[in-house]
Amino acid sequence: MQKNSTNLNILYFYGMSTIAFYVALPFLYLISILPFPLFYLVADGVYFLLYKVIGYRQKVVYENLKNSFPEKSHKELKSIERKFYHYLCDLFLETLKTLTISKEEAIKRCAFNENTKRIFKELYDQKKSCILVMGHYGNWEWAGNSFSLLNSQQLYVIYHPLTNKHFDKLMYTMRTRFGTKLYTMKDTIREMIRNRNEINATAFIADQTPSPENAYWTTFLYQETPVFWGTEKIAQKLNLPVVYVTVNKLKRGYYEVNTEYLVHDSKNTAEGEISELHTRKLEKDIIAQPEIWLWSHRRWKHDKK
Known about the structure:
The protein is α/β, with parallel strands linked by helices and about 300 residues long.
């Protein structure tokens, strides 16, 4: 009897989540096709609701900021907090914009500087695949779109499938619309080996939170922080050059992608070297423009064991 009840609950939840998706879908497309001035007015409304009314994760955000910038006053931290919530709401809606944005507008809104273009052309001309490492900083979704539109190598992005299969399919569609392909995290190394004869780039978001017992530990923004070994270990195993990617915000709705080589010869790096290098780069970026990092993420939920 309990089993049947559980099954009914699951079916009910699935049915409700399916209904919610199809109710929401027309509104998501409507927002996506809005001209940018109206689009950002909607984002301002979402900001008011999320920050002023709901107070979404405000304690988490403020605690993260306070621990990361102990030298800053309460007033300075609150200023960063407000700017972060504006960015977060813009980011959410800008991701939806990927549903309908044109190729020309995508490149205009998230441009690659000349050094970045040079690095990827150089790698392609040398017939070298590479690993891209970045954080949840700037608009990483738009950066993936621009990469696939501007560069010759195939881009692969590692992702976590969403629980709701309808929203997961929608995100998959948005992320692959301009030619990007996706790896699920559990399949990454196997798929990279399978595609080793292709000239490609695989993007790793390196500031997620691993389990503490299987992590590289370092100090990041004044705090003991675990870092995924995956980026480093896969780079060493396949001996791929590692390129660090920064997505800077120039002004509202406009970003610039900057890159630099971290290492050319991963196989001969010391243990922890790659992980330390990309962590330090991200830390420097966050200090320079703190409001465009994902402070609502529970980055420091684990203690070192």
